[in-house]
Amino acid sequence: MWVEKYRPETLSDYRGASKEKKEIKNWAQNWExxxxxxLLHGQAGTGKTSLVEALANDLGYELVETNASDVxxxxxxxxxxxxxxxxxxxxxxxxxxxxxxxxxxxxxxDRGGVxxxxxxxxxxxFPVVMTxxxxxxxxxxxxxxxxxxxxLDSVHTNSIAxxxxxxxxxxxxxxxxxxxxxxxxxxxxxxxxxxxxxQAVAMGQEELLIDDLEVIGGRNGNQDIFEALKIVFNxxxxxxxxxxxxxLEEDADTFLQWxxxxxxxxxxxxxxxxxxxxxxxxxxxxxxxxxxxQNWKLLKYLYKYSTVGVALSKEEKYSGYTKxxxxxxxxxxxxxxxxxxxxxSITSKIGERLHxxxxxxxxxxxxxxxxxxxxxxxENYFDLEDEETKFVKKF
Length: 395
Prior knowledge:
By secondary structure, the protein is of the alpha/beta class. Helices cover about 55% and strands about 5% of the residues. It has 19 helices and 7 strands. It has helices at about 1-5, 20-30, 50-60, 75-80, 115-125, 140-145, 155-170, 180-185, 190-200, 220-235, 240, 250-265, 270-295, 300-310, 330-335, 335-355, 360-375, 375-380, 385-395, and strands at about 40, 60-65, 95-100, 130, 150, 175, 205-210. It is globular and about 65 Å long. It starts with a helix and ends with a helix.
């Protein structure tokens, strides 16, 4: 897999996150027994594990790695991790302990796992880095409170595109100008997804053309959303419903629209529909608060109401096949994932040029829309592609 083949070996090879790289390297170099561990968090695919591996290589530390979502029980953690945090390196040097996906320990099967990790980080003789997609999962609150938190944001489109170009050149594959950047934009800030997409369309080819990229958009997304819907609408178990969105590529708002649209198609009893929509309305309430306040800690409530709440609204499972409908609200409002990604790309470019945040850049779009009609050079100044320019001109 190209993801493994082109995994960064050093921090200098690691694309982006310059501030975070310095911060975690400084922490590791100055760590002493009794110091806090690091909780490295950010959405899937942003390179959390790769960053820790590159850090260990740079410092010459032996890396001891455990995936917490695979080793969930107290006894297993003692067996695989605790001794490693006490014993010196085989070569007599320093160690770096990596506990991946600690938020994956939120299921009912995690018998004492979180408390055991908490004890381990208190007693360790070596620096410990834990990773999580959601640092604010209530089940890992204890770990978060005793950790130094470092967040990895989505990887910038330009950084992803540059890495994709390096891969293509190393593989000896010619490419049409703009193809790597288009893949980068469709990846939603996830380096891993971008590399996987690139390999899917380019491996074995002599040249990568923009026309080859048509398969990327719907290759995994629709199937993922359908599977998540099936789980929520067919289970009567809270933990199963809550896990339905764990690997979902669509964001919470898009998922909520799919649930809203298809609940009356799946549930036949009026009482079940009414209960489900009560939870959907509560999820929508939190969705609005998140957007207004940019308070992403509330995201967990949006997910709980739209998964567990809707799943447990039915008295019993329904039989038969339901054809799920694309959300009409998304179609009407143009708020699809692709549109939001395009908006994010545009506001990122404008924000970078004007030295403002993406949120503030949104407010400038009506003004820039007018200016684009008067000055063609503005399109080049903001590095906008033709489709992005058309998008802005609609404001």
